[in-house]
Each structure stands twice: as C-alpha cells, then as structure tokens.
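Fill in residues.
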C-alpha cells in the first residue's frame, strides 16, 4: 500500500450509511478500529455495572415513602435527604472515571494499531480542508476512535456482543451521558453541554488540570509516528547536508538487531538470496553511484525468486556425494583443498536431520558404510 494512486482511491471511497452496502475496505477498517477499542469498552462497561449494583443497594437501604408517612408526628422524625445527593455525587464520580478510562487508553490503542491504518488517517487528514481539520484538533484517527466508542455505547446489542454483558436501563442512560462528555471533549456537540456534562468535565479538570489535553496530544503524536515518518526525517537530514555514515560497526549492530528479532535469521537468509539473484544489477548501480557513468541506470524491480528450473539449486543427495568420494578415495588433505561451493551446499543441509548429517560426515570415506548398486 505504498502507491499514491492507491491511497487516493482509498481516500475517495464513498462511505455508505447502510452497513450492508459498505465497501470491503471500509468495512475492514471499521472492524479493525472496533477491535482496537474492545478492551476499552469492556473496562467502561465493567465500571458501569459495578455502579449499577451500588445504586441498587442504595435504594434498598432507603426508607420507603409509605413507611415514612406511617410514622407518628409526635415522634418528630426528620428523614435524611441524602439519597439524592449521594446518588448524584456518586454518579458524577463514576462518569468521570469512565471518561478518564477512555481518554487514558487512547494513546495505547493508537500505538498498537498497524502503521498502514495510521498512515491512511494521516494522509486523509492532510487532504481535508483546513477548517475541517481545525474542528478535530486531536487528529482524525483519535476522532474516529471516539466516534466508534460512542456508537458502541449507544447500541446495546453491540455492547452485549463485544463484552457479553447485558446492560440495564440505568447503565444505558449513564453510558449515554459518557458519550455526551466525550463528544463535548472533541467539540462535536451541536448544542451547549448540559449541566451534568459540565459537572463531569469540571470534576476531571479539578482532579487533573490539563490532563485531557495532554492525553489527546500524546494520542495525536502517536498517530503520526509511523515508519514513513522515519524515512522523511532521514531524507530531511540528508537534504540539510547532514549525512549519516554507515560504518562497519553500525552495520554489524544492525545485523545483530535483526538476528535477535523473531524470524531474524530467516529474514537475513532472504536478504542474502535477493542479493545473490541481483548481484550483477547491484554492482552496476554501485558503479553508477560512484560517478563512473554520466547517466544513472534505470531502476528495475529486484528479483526475489528463481524463475527457471536450471537456476534452482540442486537438492543435497547424500548417495551421490558418497559415490563421488568413494570412487576417488580422497584423503583428508585433498578434501581440505577441494573447492567447496558452500553457498549452494549449506542451504541444502537445512532440511536434513542433524543425526543423519553428522553420520554422513563421519563416514563419508568408508566404502563399507553404504553398499553401492
């Protein structure tokens, strides 16, 4: 996905309002973002479920209205009207906790996204009008993640499908308020935020001043840090006459770093074979870069696989090798001077059992070890 025309095609794909008629790329992109925020949704729903249980217990311990009316007046009983205050204060704290969970998890969610997804939103943001981007100061990717989280919270079926928890009416109402708070943070509310939304956001700001802005800034920064950004930085350094010198020590460190990663040895083997297949072409390019030719050579795609049957390395045949050795009965000194083609021979040993290979080496000169037909 490195061609500019392909990215333009993805950017210009119309997004249908009907889920069934969505383009496959858009549907896969939506599923990838939904899967990325799954843990966040589960955490928030778990917090809301615990808050719902506390609300139920609080209602159980309150004095019923019918019982209070039956109390004689001469007792001068004054009920404590703390239920509403405690419930309101407890929910404000609960909603602030849920909003904080979403905002705190955004940088981690974005950091775990594949680079092509981050690059797609970065490119789309650059192609948008300045006014539209200004509306989303946190970045297009952050805004889309918030929108998907709000859509999940508003759809009880999706919440149940992702988390396996069925929400009661109390939890659905509170999740709706969490959505309003998130939309208010992103500046997406068409009307002014209500009193409860302002109270929740004020509570977060009082506990952690400027924390929401810092988290959104971190998330936006992570959304633009991809592999292509590193390439652009290195290009900028070269344009500024700051050349990075690749010494032998640095190259060795790079090779060691690749070896220590999963599949590193296989990756180095692929690099070696590609260099061998394109040895002539690479030499011509290096010769041209040294200034020996006036015009640069045209760039052609590198060969990665052997096309003809003749180019394929022959499989290691121990019977054939033993037969050749047995005919000439080479001594040890002659074997050490023999011109071994290790580049073709060693790869064929990879699929051979270690015990079989060691026995072949040990008995490669004994005529009695293998009967020849």
């Amino acid at each position: 996905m490195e061609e500019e025309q392909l990215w333009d095609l993805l950017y210009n794909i119309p997004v249908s309002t009907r889920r069934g008629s969505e383009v496959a790329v858009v549907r896969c992109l939506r599923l990838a973002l939904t899967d990325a925020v799954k843990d966040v949704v589960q955490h928030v729903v778990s917090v809301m479920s615990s808050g719902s249980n506390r609300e139920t217990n609080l209602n159980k311990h309150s004095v019923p209205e019918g019982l209070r009316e039956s109390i004689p007046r001469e007792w001068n009983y004054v009920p404590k009207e703390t239920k509403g205050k405690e419930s309101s204060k407890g929910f404000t704290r609960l909603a602030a906790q849920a909003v904080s969970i979403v905002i705190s998890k955004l940088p981690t969610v974005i950091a775990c996204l594949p680079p092509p997804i981050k690059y797609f939103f970065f490119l789309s943001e650059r192609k948008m009008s300045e006014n539209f981007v200004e509306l989303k100061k946190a970045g297009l990717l952050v805004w889309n993640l918030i929108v998907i989280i709000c859509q999940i919270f508003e759809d009880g079926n999706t919440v149940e499908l992702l988390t396996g928890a069925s929400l009661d009416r109390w939890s659905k109402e509170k999740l709706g308020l969490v959505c309003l708070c998130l939309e208010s943070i992103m500046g997406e509310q068409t009307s002014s935020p209500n009193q409860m939304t302002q109270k929740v956001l004020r509570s977060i700001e009082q506990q952690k001043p400027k924390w929401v802005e810092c988290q959104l800034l971190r998330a936006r920064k992570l959304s633009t840090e991809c592999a292509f950004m590193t390439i652009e930085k290195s290009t900028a350094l070269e344009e500024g006459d700051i050349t990075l010198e690749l010494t032998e020590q640095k190259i060795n460190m790079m090779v060691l770093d690749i070896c220590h990663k999963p599949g590193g040895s296989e990756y180095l083997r692929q690099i070696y074979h590609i260099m061998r297949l394109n040895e002539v072409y690479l030499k011509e390019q290096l010769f041209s870069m040294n200034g020996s030719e006036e015009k640069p050579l045209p760039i052609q795609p590198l060969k990665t696989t052997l096309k003809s049957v003749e180019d394929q390395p022959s499989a290691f045949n121990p019977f054939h090798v033993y037969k050749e050795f047995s005919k000439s009965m080479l001594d040890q000194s002659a074997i050490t001077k023999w011109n071994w083609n290790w580049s073709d021979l060693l790869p064929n040993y990879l699929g051979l059992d270690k015990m079989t290979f060691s026995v072949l080496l040990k008995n490669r000169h004994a005529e009695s070890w293998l009967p020849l037909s």
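The two ends are 57 Å apart (CA to CA).
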